[in-house]
Amino acid sequence: SGLALHVLLDPDQRAADDWGAKGLPMSFLVDARGGVRYWVFGERDWSDGESLRTVEGLVAEAPGAGR
């Protein structure tokens, strides 16, 4: 429903090294400028609890969020 998620294939692990990813699964929340705003190691339910509050907080901080 309008949400596009991108998957990074990193066979040489260059992105993993740059981002400090040391295992799987890892999730990164990236802002519109490409900056990592939040990262977490391990499986998450992004639709509930602390994970949802984290996402909502970052969205509220985004430029134009109060429009």
Quickly give the structural class. alpha+beta
> From the alpha-carbon coordinates, what is the Rg to the nearest angstrom?
13 Å
Secondary-structure element series: HEEH
- Please provide the count of β strands: 2
User: What percent of residues are in strands?
Assistant: 15-25%
Shape: globular
List the helices and strands and how they pair.
Elements (H helix, E strand, L loop, with lengths): L13 H6 L6 E5 L5 E6 L7 H13 L6
Antiparallel strand pairs: 1-2
Describe it.
By secondary structure, the chain is an alpha+beta fold. The protein has a two-stranded antiparallel ribbon. The chain is built from two helices and two strands; from the N terminus they run H-E-E-H. The chain has helices at residues 14-19, 49-61, and strands at residues 26-30, 36-41.
